[in-house]
Structures are given as C-alpha cells and as structure tokens.
TrEMBL record:
GO annotation terms (biological process): intracellular protein transport; protein localization to Golgi membrane; vesicle-mediated transport
Pfam families named among the record's database cross-references: Arf
Native source species: Glycine max
Gene3D superfamilies membership: P-loop containing nucleotide triphosphate hydrolases
Listed GO CC annotations: cytoplasm; trans-Golgi network
Keywords recorded for this protein, A-Z: ER-Golgi transport, GTP-binding, Lipoprotein, Myristate, Nucleotide-binding, Protein transport, Transport
SUPFAM superfamilies referenced in this protein's UniProt entry, alphabetically: P-loop containing nucleoside triphosphate hydrolases
Lineage, broadest ranks: Eukaryota, Viridiplantae, Streptophyta, Embryophyta, Tracheophyta
Protein's name according to its UniProt entry: ADP-ribosylation factor-like protein 5
Keyword Transcription applies: no
Keyword GTP-binding: yes
Binding-site list for GTP: 82-85
GO MF, one example: GTPase activity
Family affiliation: Belongs to the small GTPase superfamily. Arf family.
InterPro entries noted in UniProt: P-loop_NTPase, Small_GTPase_ARF, Small_GTPase_ARF/SAR
C-alpha cells in the first residue's frame, strides 16, 4: 500500500520537494495518519481528536503559534477531524468555531473529517493539499 501511495504522490508532485508539518495533541491520531499516508511535504496538517472537547483550546493555541512562524507564511492548513467513528465526536462546524478557523485570512485552510484507524477521509484531505500546493487538480 505504501508503494501505491508513493506512486500517487509523485504523480501529483513530480520533481519539486515540499514539506508538511503535522501537529496534534497526544492520542489525536497523528502517527496513525502518517502511517496511512506515508507523507512528507508545504502544508500544515493538524490532527484533531474530535472526541476530546477538553483540549481543543490547546491545539488552537498551538496552531496559531505555528502560523506565526515565518517558514509557514505561505503554507496551507489541513485540519484532520479524526476519530469521527466515536460517539459524540465534534462536527466540522464545532471544530471550525472552537479553532477560530474563520479568522485565518492569510492561509487557505480546510477541515476534513476522518477516521485514521480505518483510513477514511485521509485521501480526500491529501487530495485537497495536492490541489492547493501544486495548483493542479488531482487525477
């Protein structure tokens, strides 16, 4: 599966190198997400544990701190709303409000529901990044 993802990735991103920063609190699903995507590239991926309402402000503070970094001034932001399979998981609208995503004006951003454990939604998020970073529509 990793070889297939690598081939897909290099079809989308031929010769140019990109870098992605993945942020998320412990147990949000960052490692599982990366294992599923085998990724490394010019975007920020924030993995949110959609069932953890108590720590959403911590990831908000961290995300806005990161966005102030000069190396990320041209990056796009993908928020993976992970663990959507858990009962009472926050909706994308709830996460958007909790993270104040509408206040982000200098970066393209997208929130993608997913279940990293099952691989659901991961390719949709990856496709969004590919389209924004390269300006090409994924094949």
């Amino acid at each position: 599966m990793g070889a297939m993802i690598s081939r897909f990735w290099f079809m989308l991103f031929p010769a140019k190198e990109y870098k992605i920063v993945v942020v998320g609190l412990d147990n949000a699903g960052k490692t599982t997400t990366l294992y599923k995507l085998h990724l490394g590239t010019n975007a920020v991926i924030a993995v949110i544990d959609s069932s953890d309402r108590t720590r959403i402000t911590i990831i908000k503070d961290e995300l806005f701190r990161l966005l102030g970094h000069e190396d990320l001034q041209h990056s796009v932001i993908l928020v993976f709303a992970n663990k959507q399979d858990i009962k009472d998981a926050m909706t994308p609208a709830e996460i958007t409000d909790a993270l104040s995503l509408h206040s982000i004006k200098d970066h393209d951003w997208h929130i993608q529901t997913c279940c990293a454990l099952l691989g659901e939604g991961l390719y949709d998020g990856l496709g969004w990044i590919a389209q924004r970073v390269t300006g090409n529509t994924p094949r």
